[in-house]
Amino acid sequence: MAKPIHDPWSVDLERLLREALQKIRFGTVTLVIQDGVVIQVDRSEKIRLGRQGHMHGSGI
Strand locations in 1-60, DSSP E? Predict the structure, then answer.
């Protein structure tokens, strides 16, 4: 069976997603899809500080 010319899911995309998910501890991985095709993968990671990392009066 012939593979579709415009496959929205590829081995490269799967590899990219696996890497993004393996490298992140806290945060989000977002897929941007246009016309049924993933055009962008965003990874946003949160860095959690322990109490010793906080400074008095350092509100954000």
Answer: 27-34, 37-45
* CA quadruple 33, 25, 20, 8: dihedral sign: negative
Does the predicted model carry a pTM greater than 0.90?
no
The model's pLDDT over 12-59, given as tens digits with 9 standing for 90+, comes to 999 999 999 998 989 999 999 999 889 999 999 988 887 665 566 555
**Residue 9 backbone class (left: φ over 0; alpha: ψ -120 to 50; beta: rest):** beta
In sequence order, the β-bridge partners of residue 29 are 43
Helices (H), the chain: 11-23
Q: DSSP state, 18?
A: H
